[in-house]
Amino acid sequence: MLSSITASHVYEKCIAVSSGIITVERVMYKDNDNEKRILQRWYWALVVGTPRCSKGVISAPLGKVVVDNGKSDRITVVNNDQIMSAQHAVTRYQVIKPSCHGYTWLKLSPLTGRKHQLRVHCAEVLGTPIVGDYKYGWQTHRKWKQFHPSDLSKDSNEEIPKEKTLHFGLDLESGSILEKQPRLHLHCKEMTLPNVSQAIQKVQLSSGCDVSKLETLKLVAPLPSHMQRSWDVLNS
Asked: What is the pTM of this model?
């Protein structure tokens, strides 16, 4: 049914190691019009360091390079003139909350959907790799020192929130900045997309549907346990 909506192309785009909202992305094409994206996503990330500017737009092309004598590959910022396969990549970012402990919470919105776009733009353009990103922030994590409660201000009267555990001692919040090997702190927090059920109803009544005119739905996903733990620790 959805395939009959005006000249559309559907493809899946997900970041396997990140958390949060995942959906099928729909990009609409109209005759003689430019591609128009109707899906907006906002990710939250905890990065090491602080960007020079509190907000901005990153426009840096990305390309794949082979490393380790052909054993693996990675995405990196490239010059359009150097690599024919370079892809245009744009990311909007904004500082949510800086920390005096050397970390910063960022809000990221990918305006293009390139592989590892947010991770590479954070690490190579902003110079602030995402906590737990060992692929693109390996140099930073080689020197990683887990956050310790004693790093908090001695003047603070607040206690570190206690970890939540399941039966048998299973840790719900493993992977926070309190760990020697933190998990990736990248999470799709908010997503705005067209009301698909409304689109289906309109398609049933007519042969076409302009998705850009549909009502929008806003989805919000809470932080995963390890990121919530890091948030609580840095704000205690």
From this structure: 0.76
